[in-house]
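alkaline phosphatase: structure tokens wanted.
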Amino acid sequence: MGTINIFRTTAVLLAVVTCSSSVEDKAHWRKIALDDITRKLYHTPNTRVAKNVVLMIGDGMGISTVTSARILKGQLKGKAGEETFLNFEKFPYTGLSKVYSQDYQVPDSAATASAMMTGVKTNSRCMGVDGLAMPGECRNLTERRLNGMGHWANDAGKSTGFVTTSRVTHATPAAMYAVTTNRDWEDDRSVPKNTGSPYCTDIAWQLIHNNSHMNVIMGGGSANFVPTTASDPVTLRSGRRLDDTNLIEVWKNDKIQRNANYSKAYNAKQLEDIDPANTQYLLGLFASSHMAYELDRNKEPEGEPSLADMTRKAIQVLSNNDNGFFLMVEGARIDHGHHETKAKKALYDTLAFEEAVQVVMDTTREEETLIIVTADHSHVLTINGYPHRGNGILGKERWPIGGHIQHVFKLLLLKLLFQNKDSTFSFFIGKT
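Answer:
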């Protein structure tokens, strides 16, 4: 592995340097500028090689999402909001990423996550292959396949794992371990029959059979691992697989055969009760499909753990390895909230993601851990009009149009310019 010389950093973010004060005169703003410049000038770069790497991806968490979440965070504490910072906005290194896939101006999570993991752009819907692999085709996958950060960390003797609020077979987490030309091939019923290639295996199968070294796997999507002839351990309903294979049992039997300590969890209480000191491998599946939005999450012991809870337990398990670890953390449902035009859910999931960032900061040593906070792509969220400072970010604002006053939501999803689902020219107000 190459050396990594930066330690606390973020990407795809631009911080706004403001703070609250009772008197915001010229001295107030000049002090802010001076303090910021002084902090930059006296910052000492950490030139050590990183022992641990934590890649934290806020799916769909673009500039407008970060801005809105920052304001919401402040307003939830009774402040105006605009002067607030998200914790990762205070990291010493900040930048922007230019994201596009090999075939699309606007990429999807599969291609972007694959590019982050491997350093090689690919076609949209593809993961773990270069751009010469065509979407939906199984030919020449052995020649087109790529290794990435998870593989490199394992080769270096480090522990590896990921946590996500999506299905563990969904695009972003799957880019860490899968080789596929279709992100939707999450279970065997989704893969076309008679492809003529042994390499078109489903993503869940690849996770269990091809990545037995992975120490931590946590998220949703339990149904993709269980056959229709067996019960999903989360819902007790039938699973989705048609091959009569229970991949959870395959995972467990592999650990038994290797005489390795392992733990499984299907709810928050079971996860909390796991002893990380005696756990080499951890499988946590907390929903049959995606996990709940933070606003909807069952916070009782039998409910789902938070992203912060999963992140904390993952670090505790991975820290058993003296050689260090690589961990990927995804706030997946930020993206889903935007796709569904549910701004409130997307923003609260952004704040839940920020809590996971804080867990990483609190449970790792800055001298030896590289933390990267980024987004894989932005989204269609727009902050509309000229709202007054301190106005509720999820409320309404009065603003003049042609001499008239109209009520509009401050957060809008504009299909007129940025569309996800159809070509209808419309002006759509974000739902909460």
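The radius of gyration is 22 Å. The chain is about 30% helix and 15% strand.

Cheers.
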